[in-house]
Amino acid sequence: EYKTAATLESFFLFLRDSVQLDVESPAVTSCKKCITSLGVLCHSVCRTRWFDHDDPTGNGDYEVLSDLLTMYPREICPQSDGDKVVHLSVGALFSVSCSYDATYGFACVNADQGSRSCEDYRVRFTCPEEFCQEQCRTRWMNSDTPSEEGDVESILQLMKTFPGQACKNPVSIEAKTTRGISAAHTGDTYLSYDVTFGFACINKKQKSKQCEDYQVILTCPSDFCQGKFSCR
């Protein structure tokens, strides 16, 4: 029986971080409301949902940040503020040898586990607080038409083609074809897909030898939207 606010807060943190219960699940949300009503300050944390991109194979189970950013654009902050949290049953991490950090992601290698194999893991991210706030986004932009080389939507070219509508230091970038298919699901291989250069698809790198026609949308620092776009 939990009779003090301090004990209740500890219990909530236990549920949130140790047991396979999401923070937004009814049980934990109810507990959180109970804690708040007793005067305990509940600090809001900017966290993503749980992601499970990879299934265990003969080598192990991997949840790599670069792959997750490609598969789930805008849902994950490019640079996570703090370690990724692996979602598994209480104490499971003590029985496996694994590696996880905020730069690479998570890796469990079967060869490191002795006689056992890696479980199927999920990860989530703790992001900077502003990532969870309303976002400043541009419209979809298409500055290039597929050529003999491929299709390139560089940040520099977007700024030239759409003056005042593309920021030079975007927080994130998302690409999709002009037919509306996400870049994560076209099967194309990308030379670049990041906020430093932009997006680049090269024909000779593709099995079909032809890139789709892509368009991109940028998430920019909030001050870029002031007087230009609506932050949403």
UniProtKB/TrEMBL annotation:
Top-level taxonomy: Eukaryota, Metazoa, Chordata, Craniata, Vertebrata
Pfam families for the chain: Mucin2_WxxW
GO cellular component: extracellular region
Domain WxxW: start-end pairs: 48-127, 138-220
InterPro entries associated with the record: WxxW_domain
UniProt KW keywords: Glycoprotein, Secreted, Signal
Protein name: WxxW domain-containing protein
Subcellular location: Secreted
Species annotation: Seriola dumerili (Greater amberjack)
